[in-house]
Amino acid sequence: MPVLWLFLIVLALAAIGFIAGRMRVTSAGGERPHSLPNYYGWNVAMKVMVPAYLALVVWLLAQPFLVNSQVVGMLGDRAVPDGSTIGLVMSDVRRVADGLDATVAQGLMTSEEANSIRTEFTDVRDRLGEAGVALGSNVSSEVLSAAQTYRTLNATGNFWMSTVVILLAVGGLAWGITQSHGSFRARNSVETGVRMILLSAAMLAILTTIGIVLSLVGNTWHFFQIYPASKFFGSFTWSPSFGGGSELGIWPLLWGTLYISVIALIVAVPIGLFAAVYLSEYAGPRMRAWAKPLLEVLAGIPTIVYGLFALLTVGPLLLTVFGRDGLGWMQAGTAVMTAGLVMGIMLIPFVSSLSDDIINSVPQSLRDGSYGLGATQSETIKQVILPAALPGIVGAVLLAASRAIGETMIVVFGAGAAARLSLNPFDAMTTVTAKIVSQLTGDADFASPEALVAFALGMTLFIITLGLNVFALYIVRKYREQYE
Fold it and tell me: Which residues contact 226 (CB under 8 A, 6 or more apart)?
């Protein structure tokens, strides 16, 4: 049964349970019920949805791992041809399994033939080709047999998933309806359930972070087992080669990342801070009402649009001034300066919005005291407001820096792809995030250091941005403790 149908069936049972639970307690005579009728309805609906949806999510997460492990164990090393890996073979298995489903759906093969694979090997390949499934020349009979097993295990798993989820929903429906009587404390049950759902949502964010860290740590450890950490952190050359003999030094990528981020902050911090000071101290209510939302529109523009703006507008504009026809410093439109300027424009609303909120939170009593001593408005801003808001402003700048370090699309379009150590801001360079994308693009062999290096790069970037965020939150918290 499709997952969408299963989801809608459980939702329909929950709606039926809500109506039945509410009607059962309202139609019953005798003593006054403990809770309002809606609480009894929600009690039934929650007992239907929570166990069923929880089982559905857990099953959808666990089934692919179990099925893949069984198919991989069945294939063994003998099914992996020379020059390939078990990951590429499993990709063929999944593609062929999808093709078997497509041939059954188009009537090119019966379900019994797809389940047994008793037809000739070439016949199966021809039918899959008619269904639009492109198979490589290395697809063997072992792959077809594994695809049949893969398809059968998934079909069995989906059947039992549907059975278990529907049984849990029906059982919850019956259990909730039996509880719908006047003496049952439905409000307490519903509020406890909602509290547990909120706690689970909070824990989900934490568990997601832990899962991200563990996935990075595992693959990073695997990378350092086949490529020395001393060469990764000690080399100043980035030259990957999937044929072997790669130089995977991180420093050219880190240099490009930090260089572009510094230029972006040089652009964003003064403009964003001046805009925040104007909006909070000088602008009237009418000006602020339309100027601040207009400025914050920049934060809603997709980064791919900023990248195209860098490629089509900013790069050619800089080339006309600093290129061969101008000062002769710039060879092409893709350069550190191009990406830095556009990224700085993207960061302006981050700096201005956070700084504006921080400046507005400075107590009015500090302003009144400064004015009472005879200071002007500009002197009050320079000598009272900005020093008082400085910790929060520094936190906002650090948060903007972590945003700049993790940017990808602007770098891909505006900075180029050259990994080099150079002080010239008009040279093309690249960043850690751009190389993560390039190393994992295409049919990468995840057993090779050239693909696994992406996880080591991601782990390094994660540690850097985590440190910046922790430091920024520490400064902001210290600022809030001072004035709240």
Answer: 449, 452
